[in-house]
């Protein structure tokens, strides 16, 4: 099955889903000309989660370019780095990694300990590195971004916007093309460990070649995704989806729409991420109560557990029924559609003023 447009698939999603899922901000731009192809609440403050690590990587690339570090330089793990919660690779205090391995772990594994190790190697301490992050954000025109740590762990004052993340992604790709391969790697190995990227689009969307995902309960499921077809590179920023499957379907749909916008369709479009009018400032939002993830919504978790218990009870009762009675019932009819990560149909709700993106399939692999 081709991984491009699959309009019938999304129609099935829309028909079968019990309700439309309201998602967070989104933005689609073309890298070559910075044109905005689609925008939804692009200036709404949002928690970046591990998308923060894109900025951390950018500063590592700068340090490599300046000669402050080399890819084979060894950096130690401090007590602070070792104390970071998962996702992490679990380096012991005093042990070392090369910058190359730490960078791979930062981008592919989204390792929080590797982020702090790199930050300390560059700036001497985490606070000093955060100051560099904020100074760089200001230089790149990220007007509504504030960093508190180098890895994206929950912090009330660590916020960004879809527009700011698009500007950051643009800077990474244009300033450091020599490191593009890192964003496209689907996995890495560290000793006997095999670490796989959370960016499922790399395996499922035609032309996908980066970048980074992020998740916390308050931010929901975020992604900055890039794809290239016919020498055109599209960047899509998706924030605040309620599951990884919804995030992937929405990002794929937006990327597909971006590739369809060319020629006469963009003849009169002069809006770029730099000149698009800045929306009024609004409070940062949290989607904790809607996120489908254990530990984020206890009521949902209890309901899911209770539902699973009822299913097990019903299954046991069904086994006790006579075979003849079971034979009288007709076999159920099933319809196969492309599922999301949770196995349920997914829909994409787009609220931007621009035309909604064409539907795109997302194949789980």
Describe this structure in words.
Mean pLDDT is 83; it is low at 1-21 and 321-365. 37% of the residues lie in helices and 15% in strands. It folds into two domains: 1-46 and 161-167 and 204-292 and 322-365, no CATH class; 50-158, Beta-lactamase (3-Layer(aba) Sandwich). It has 365 residues and is α+β, with helices and mostly antiparallel strands. The longest helix has 23 residues, at 298-320. The strands form three sheets. The protein has a five-stranded antiparallel beta sheet, with helices on both faces. It has a two-stranded antiparallel ribbon with strand order 3-4.
Task: List the keywords.
12 helices, Beta-lactamase, disordered N terminus, alpha+beta, disordered C terminus, 2 domains, 365 residues, two-stranded antiparallel ribbon, single chain, 9 strands, five-stranded antiparallel sheet, globular
What's the topology here?
Blueprint: H1 7-16, E1 26-30, E2 36-40, H2 52-66, E3 74-76, H3 79-82, E4 96-98, H4 99-109, H5 112-123, H6 126-139, H7 162-175, H8 180-184, E5 187-190, E6 193-196, H9 201-204, E7 208-216, E8 220-229, E9 232-241, H10 244-260, H11 298-320, H12 323-328
Antiparallel strand pairs: 1-2, 1-9, 3-4, 5-6, 7-8, 8-9
């Amino acid at each position: 099955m081709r991984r491009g447009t699959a309009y019938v698939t999304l129609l099935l999603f829309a028909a079968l889903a019990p309700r439309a899922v309201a998602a967070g901000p989104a933005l689609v731009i073309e890298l070559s000309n910075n044109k905005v192809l689609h925008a939804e609440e692009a200036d709404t403050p949002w928690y970046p989660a591990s998308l923060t690590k894109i900025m951390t990587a950018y500063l590592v690339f700068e340090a490599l370019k300046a000669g402050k570090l080399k890819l084979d330089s060894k950096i130690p793990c401090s007590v602070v780095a070792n104390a970071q919660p998962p996702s992490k690779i679990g380096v012991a205090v005093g042990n070392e990694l090369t910058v190359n391995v730490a960078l791979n772990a930062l981008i592919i594994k989204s390792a929080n300990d590797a982020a702090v190790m790199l930050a300390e190697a560059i700036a001497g301490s985490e606070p000093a590195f955060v100051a560099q992050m904020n100074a760089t954000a200001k230089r790149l025109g990220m007007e509504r971004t504030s960093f508190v740590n180098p890895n994206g762990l929950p912090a009330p004052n660590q916020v960004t916007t879809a527009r700011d993340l698009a500007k950051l992604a643009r800077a990474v790709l244009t300033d450091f093309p020599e490191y593009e391969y890192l964003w496209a790697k689907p996995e890495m190995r560290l000793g006997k460990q095999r670490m796989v990227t959370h960016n499922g689009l790399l395996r499922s969307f035609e032309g996908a070649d980066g970048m980074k995902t992020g998740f916390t309960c308050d931010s929901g499921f975020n992604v900055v995704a890039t794809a290239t077809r016919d020498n055109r590179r599209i960047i899509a920023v998706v924030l605040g989806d309620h599951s990884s499957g919804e995030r992937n379907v929405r990002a794929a749909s937006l990327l597909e729409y971006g590739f369809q916008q060319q020629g006469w369709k963009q003849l009169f479009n002069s809006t770029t991420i730099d000149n698009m009018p800045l929306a009024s400032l609004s409070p940062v939002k949290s989607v904790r109560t809607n996120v489908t993830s254990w530990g984020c919504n206890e009521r949902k978790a209890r309901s899911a557990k209770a539902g699973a218990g009822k299913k097990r009870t019903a299954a046991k009762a069904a086994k006790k029924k006579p075979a003849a009675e079971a034979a009288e019932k007709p076999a159920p009819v099933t319809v196969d559609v492309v599922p999301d990560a949770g196995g349920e149909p997914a829909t994409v709700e787009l609220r931007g003023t621009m035309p909604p993106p064409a539907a795109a399939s997302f194949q789980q692999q």
